Amino acid sequence: MSIQVQLIPQTKPGQQLQREFDRRLEAILCEQTRTAPTPQMAALWQQIIKATSGGKRTRPLLVNLGYQVVATDQDTRLLDIGCAFELLHTALVIHDDIIDQDFIRRGQPTLSAHYRDAALAQGKSQATAEHLGHSAALLAGDALISQALQLLHAACQDLACGQRMIDVFHSAIQQSAAGELDDVMFSAHIESPDLDDVLQMHRLKTAAYSFEAPLITGALLAGATDEIVTRLSTFANLLGSCYQIIDDVLGTFGDAETTGKPNDSDLREGKITVLIALVESIESAAGTVEAWRHGEVSNDAMRALLIAHDIEAKARALADECCQQARAELAQLPLSKAVRTTFDQLIDDLLQRNT
């Protein structure tokens, strides 16, 4: 997930917090490298460090923002809780690349690609090298999830709300897995989802762990009431829906050089995106979509169908509707001016992003 907006004010304390997240994450990963039980595992952790470098730390900063919804001080546990979410994000991204059989992400080789290329250099066949690459990536994701859970449990174990925070984190993992499975099944055309099904899949796959869980966990750490948690949950899910709708738009109509992703990949992979669900809901277009599902209509013809029915504009209007509902939820939360401004900027950024 790429979010351009600064989730913390560009003040000295804000910049310091971002540096502290970076330093703490580096220390955690370096410690795993140092204590790895085998040289191969140490080398894998070194590749994981490369995979996390340069990130915007969106989820740790959302944990902090959730905390600021309720409190104005700083809790030292924010660092480890935020890093737990960053480790989880890295794991799910690595696993997603395996599922999609991708060896490039945003123009850079993935962890799978590193191991694949090393195997190819040793004379292994393409199939063997790719299997080795995906196997190493699978294990990297597993190790990251384990470390994320250990980090979160250690940070939360002595808190009155600690078990609830841990439950939120576990639920985010379960929901992400459920959403990813739906995505796989929909794209294999085993299921025939409608728009509500696709939006639910996105909520589970993306919103739950990228928006909802970080915000709620931070708010719980600060002592949030059930009412605040409920409103934040609704707000976060609307943000996640907006993010994913725009992501689907960029996956077909975005500039490939800007997004780092070919704008024909979703169609080539048979992805059931919001765009597909929207056009399939049009009676005169439903037959063409069904034929495309069975490989009887070309991807170029599907793109032409999307353009003919102005589906990009319809999808963007749906994203805008999600954001308007999110603003309505935001209006019901007792926020400081600085936090409210940051949330407003985040909503604007989600709608306007191009990567």
TrEMBL record:
Keywords: Magnesium, Metal-binding, Transferase. Its cofactor is Mg(2+). One of its GO terms (molecular function) is dimethylallyltranstransferase activity. InterPro entries: Isoprenoid_synthase_dom_sf, Polyprenyl_synt, Polyprenyl_synt_CS. It is an enzyme of class 2 (transferase). Its EC number is 2.5.1.1, 2.5.1.10, 2.5.1.29. Belongs to the FPP/GGPP synthase family. PANTHER family: GERANYLGERANYL PYROPHOSPHATE SYNTHASE, SHORT CHAIN ISOPRENYL DIPHOSPHATE SYNTHASE. This is Geranylgeranyl diphosphate synthase type II. It comes from Enteractinococcus fodinae.
